[in-house]
Amino acid sequence: MILAGEMRAGTPGLPWLVFLHGFSGDRREWQRVGAQLPDHPQLYLDLPGHGGSQDMAVTGFSDVSQLLSNTLLSYNILNYWLVGYSLGGRVAMFHACQQPQGLAGLIVEGGHPGLRDASEREARSRSDQRWAQRFRDEPLTSVFLEWYQQPVFASLTDAQRDELVTLRSQNNGATLAAMLEATSLAVQPDLRAALSASNIPFHYVYGERDEKFAALAAELHAERHVIPNAGHNAHRDNPAAVAASLAQILRLRTKDIL
After folding, report:
1. How far apart, in whole angstroms, are the C-alpha atoms of residue 216 and residue 227?
2. How far, in Å, CA of 191 to CA of 255, rounded?
3. Where is the AB hydrolase-1 domain (predicted)?
């Protein structure tokens, strides 16, 4: 079994860019950024419970990581960067900590490395269970209206919030709920130590108005990249600046290799 995806060709020999979206997104989420990086071959994936992969059920991060490995093998992708936002960033970090073959580097936007405190895990578990039940039982429009009122989305304008609610309400509530439970921060391991011990190049991207994830970025052994005029969803708020950061990262790393 492999994840649904969309491939774009690039210059032979350059590493692939494998894009992973956030919760309630799909393969389209990164395409405005990827379009500005045409030299690199690209793969945009739908995570379990989303888009073309919505019927796939997983029990945790290990399942998602194995699906990702199967998918890359099916495309014969042997040299690649993982680029992930939020949930996709957490999946990317977990996958990188499994020391997969062929991973050239890791770029994470607004992804949480994991909770350290047991009480925080308990609180997050209760919160995610409540949200999951709402996704199952209520109209998605009403749920997402409240979802995007959470503090992490405080930088959104009313127009941006309305646009996201409309877009995300096209999902399947039951499959979103299952994925939310399977990949809750409550069950994600704290990845800080494993990421610090890894030799894989690690770059962390966050919006200048995203105070929570700016603080988390400071805890990580990663190169940090601040995106101007952006909040938590930096690649949506300012895709040109995110694309420019990715281009710089890839250019410098390619130069180091050569």
Report:
1. 15
2. 29
3. 17-244
DSSP codes, 195-230: HHH--S-EEEEEETT-HHHHHHHTTSSSEEEEETT-
Average pLDDT over residues 103-114: 98
In the DSSP assignment, the letter for residue 20 is E
| pLDDT tens-digit map of 13-42 | 999 999 999 999 999 999 999 999 999 999
Q: Place 256 in a pLDDT band, splitting at 50, 70 and 90.
A: low
Tokens representing 201 are 């190049």
Of the pLDDT bands very low, low, confident and very high (cuts 50, 70, 90), residue 258 is very low
pLDDT exceeds cutoff 50 at 144: yes
Among the residues of the chain, which ranges form H helices? 31-34, 61-74, 87-96, 118-137, 140-147, 158-168, 173-182, 192-197, 211-217, 234-237, 239-257
The 10 Å Cβ neighbour count of residue 205 is 29
Give the integer Cα–Cα distance in Å for 82 and 93. 9
Measured distance CA(55)–CA(58) in Å, rounded: 10
Contact 227, 207 (CB under 8 A): yes
Alpha-carbon distance 234 to 205, whole Å?
Answer: 8
